[in-house]
Amino acid sequence: MVSPMLLIAMPLGAAFLIVLLGSKMAARIVAIATVAFLVVLAPIWLSAAISEPFVIVLADVLPPLGIAFGLDAVSAGFALLIAVSGLLVLLYSFPYIPHAGEFKGKEKAEVRYYAIFLLLLAGAFGLVMTKDIFNLFVFFEILCISSYLLVAYSQEERALEAGFKYMVLGSIGSAFMLVAIGLSYRLSGSLAIADIAKALAAAPNSYATLVSVLFVLGFGIEAAVFPLNTWLPDAHSSAPSSISAVLSGFVIEVALVVLVRLSLNVFSGAMLSVLAVLALAGILVGEMAALGQKELKRALAFSSIGQVSMMLFAFALGSEIGKWAGLGQLLMHAGAKSALFLVSGYFIVRTGSHEIEAYRGLGRKMPAAGAFFAIAALSLVGMPPLFGFFTKLRIVEAAAAAHSAIGYAGIVVILFATVIESIYLFRIVRTLYGANAEAAASGAAGGDLPAFAWIAVAGFVLLVLVGGFMIPSFDRLLQPMAAVLATI
User: Fold this and answer.
1) How many Å apart are CA 223 and CA 254, to the nearest integer?
2) What percent of the chain has pLDDT over 70?
3) What is the pLDDT of residues 306-352, one digit of tens each?
4) Average pLDDT over every residue of 289-305
5) Are 155 and 101 in contact (CB under 8 A)?
6) Which residue, among 360, 359, 308, 304, has the nearest Cα to 329 in the 3D structure?
């Protein structure tokens, strides 16, 4: 079998090749060919990893001196999600990025965009595969630095401000992680995650709690865990829509799952209860904040806070059905929210405005974009028979099965949040198809989605359309992922 290390090596090599070639067309070809090749190989690796997880040791030097990577159902499943999402977003980027910000039509800027995009993919792949705590930090930094640069890509004032804010908070998180890594190494004498887990289990409670809190602070910022998510609304609303889709589609989810795996395997079980409480607060804050937004992408960004908090709550229940429900919600959110951000990008391009009211009647002028947006929004709300209905129902079932105060509180919070979510998303859809459509949307320049953008959005929407009818198929994937989530 071809080595899964290609997941990291190919994007890294392709990024440097793109910079060396320096051509926009070459950058597009290299980027799409690299990611498409990984999309072809990812299902093969996933099938093999589900049957028998395996460890890759570089240069045959075993830990604690060597560097180890692993591929199990979780890491292979996320590799497939990252690769497919990356491919669709690249397709969308071809017609969209030339219209982004101050770099309109500038070839060198597009070359940098594709190179940094591939570095971001390499960081995400590395995060889910590494079994070494220091390399976890290295790939975390690659992912974060790439995200900072891409958020600020347009060079507009709001994008630069959002990128700087994201960088400052991310750097603070990195500092917390570095201290936690130092404390872990001092205790265990090893950087292998399995060795650190054993050492913390035997360590004094105060020491283990300190390390746990530092790691949660570090990864919690990137995973947008409340109240560490203050960077997310500005970053999502100011970044190019292709990058907003990536951030919401898999970047914060990857950080969230790594945090959950560390909590289940390395930290004490008490940390899960803390995360569950924070998750419920995040659901309420995210959805209530989204309700009051006048800008579309900012509303979607706050919605992501609520959705990610819902996933965290399911994971924090600690049960098999909870982990299963969290993974299902994560998969649905990746499809629905990516589609919403990608469509919103062309609403902005066509009207030149971020304001929801500026899109009145635009659903009739851009019928495909309007339909895609409505379907994805209905899935987020949980409208049957779309995928979101089944994933949200499973989270409620997991909360009820917990037979605990936090579980029952979660049911109330989720149902209340769904009502709030319905109000603002239906309001947006109603605006898209509002009265006096032709007159209101007459200022929109251009037609519907370009072909490549149409294909990309359709790919994400297809997931939420057919997901509800493919629950048995998804379960065959999600069950082994949930089973190994609590193993290293």
Assistant:
1) 8
2) 93
3) 999 999 999 888 888 888 888 889 989 999 999 999 999 888 888 88
4) 90
5) yes
6) 308
- Is the whole-model pTM more than 0.85? yes
- The alpha carbon of residue 441 and the mean position of all alpha carbons in its chain are separated, in whole angstroms, by 32
Q: What is the pLDDT of residues 91-127, one digit of tens each?
A: 998 888 887 655 555 667 788 889 999 999 999 999 8
Q: Are 80 and 334 in contact (CB under 8 A)?
A: no
Tell me: the pLDDT tens digits for 267-284? 766 677 888 889 999 999
Residue 355 or residue 437, greater confidence: 355
What count of other Cβ atoms lies within 10 Å of the Cβ of residue 175? Answer: 13
183 close to 218: Cβ distance less than 8 angstroms: no
If you search the block for the tokens 């929109």, which residue do you land on?
Answer: 444
Q: What pairing do the DSSP bridges indicate for beta strands 68-71 and 54-57? A: antiparallel
Contact 373, 339 (CB under 8 A): yes
- Which positions ≥6 away from 404 have C-beta within 8 Å? none
| Both structure tokens of 47 | 């099938």
From residue 60, give the alpha-carbon distance in Å to each of 55, 68, 139, 178.
Answer: 11, 9, 21, 27
Whole-angstrom distance, CA of residue 44 vs CA of residue 301: 34
State the DSSP string of 345-364.
HHHHHHHS--BGGGGTTHHH
1 is written with which tokens?
């079998």
Spatial distance between the Cα atoms of 156 and 154, rounded to a whole number of angstroms: 5
> Kindly report the CA angle at 90 between 84 and 92, in degrees rounded to 5?
105
Nearest to 148 by CA among 132, 126, 170: 170
Angle at 41 between CA 40 and CA 43, to 5 degrees: 85
Calculate ∠ Cα 332-330-69, nearest 5°: 130
Q: Is 451 helix (H, G, I), strand (E, B) or coil?
A: helix
| Beta strand residue intervals within 260-395, DSSP E | none
Q: What is the spatial distance between Cα 137 and Cα 443, in angstroms, rounded to a whole number?
A: 48
Q: Report the alpha-carbon distance of residue 91 to residue 247 in Å, rounded.
A: 16
